[in-house]
Structure prediction request, 239 residues.
Amino acid sequence: MSAVSFEAVSFSYNGKAVLGPLSLSVPAGQTLVLLGQSGSGKTTALRLVNAMLVPTSGDVMVLGKRVKEWNPVALRRSVGYMIQDVGLFPHMNVERNIGIVPQLLGWETARTAERVRALLGLLRLDRSLATRLPHELSGGQRQRVGVARALAADPPILLCDEPFGALDPFTRAELQLEFRQLVAELEKTVLFVTHDVREAVHLGDRVALLDRGALEFSGTLDEFQQSTDPAVSALREYL
Prediction:
């Protein structure tokens, strides 16, 4: 079963084609990496999933339902979202940042507090950090808080837009390993945007290569590693 699928989806801006037509599916519980250079349409595809953008044509399906049939607010609160600069609220401490989505969903205070405590442990964040503001954390700690916030309401789907791109190589490698283990343990479906071939191979179950809005390749990680497609073969030189 596909948790997310693109059915002949195109997107244009001011009359210029940005993406598509794109037909692609993400099986439930797997990680699809959207790989490509800047301007290839990766982030556009991601934003179509949570209705931040509306397709010019075609349909995006989420959990068997057309995105256009979802209430946009309900959809965005049901899909975790992670970005490179984390996007934590600077005036809120760690506990409030993690608990903001459950709070908006109307969770009881005690339930939200228990969820925050559980996620701090899951993301290897000391409980003493709960009262700190984002600027008092290291880059790796902020990104872990970002992961915790994306998971706070236990959404089945995570959208990740180069979340580890701004981290130093050591912290990035550490978080990549933790993230892969975490999503496998929690059985999340993930769409992960990156321009880093090594990151794609390390994190993905499936890889979709985009080039100037067009789908160049789509397949399993094994198929990506064995493909004779010239574009794919050229990318493997970076591994």
